[in-house]
Design a protein that fits this description.
By secondary structure, the chain is of the alpha+beta class. It folds into 2 domains: 142 residues, no CATH class; 95 residues, no CATH class. It has 8 helices and 9 strands. Strands 4-5-6-7-8-9 form a 6-stranded antiparallel barrel. It has a two-stranded parallel ribbon with strand order 2-3. β7 and β8 form a beta hairpin. The longest helix is centred in the middle third of the chain and has 16 residues.
Amino acid sequence: MNNIVSLRSFLCLGPALLTAACALGPLTAPAPDGAAGADVTTPAFSFADDTFAFANDIRARHPDVDDLYANYCFVLARALRQFNQFARFEPGRPRLDPAGYVELVRRVAARGSWAAPLRPEDRVVIPGYASLREFSRAEEAAVKEGLGGRFWTLLHWTNWRVAFFVTRAHQANVAHEIVEELRAGRLVQLLVTNWPKPELNHTVVAFEAHETSVGIDFGVWDPNDPAGPGVLSWQRQARAFWATRLYDTEPGAIRVFRMYFSRLL
């Protein structure tokens, strides 16, 4: 979304904010052991093949464009995981008409992204294409229609965590959980923010982690930037996240939360 977000948007759901900050474990929990020392890549994921070919547009950067595909970052990031967990591609099968592909995408998007991956034989089969990148490039309109609207993703109660202060221990716990999820072979959707700076209230998907001399660099897919991966860093000494290379975002300190990893969160 990388949105320009107004203060009024947060104030209108003020009461919900009181419960949202603790959505990922105790804020005062001690920093977990093992958050560092990471070097892992999700085995069933290729950035070149398993991502969408089109971008979520930033409305503030295209104020005069009608029918803009903007503010769909939560939809796309969730769908990336859904395709990874619930779909498979069969390039040798005959291609369908657009309506047929819309229905298949809807079936993929209807599954909760927190659910366990399906066995290959139980997955939704996408015929005629070898990968999500190839499919979404050729059938962009059908994919967008099948993924559906953005309304409820924008109002999801956990989004409002961006307005809350979090402790360093909380952020260390998030870093640890990202590493553990990646080690288990699962993509990790993240809510990233530098609020109250009106620049970054957005979502990315982590797919790899590499240890550095000062912490961990997480490779992320950004819905706004299909061209290449971004980098979200964990700084071990500061016990804080840093926007090292996120699309249309100045490098700097940010706060990070996990998204859509359970029915409520």
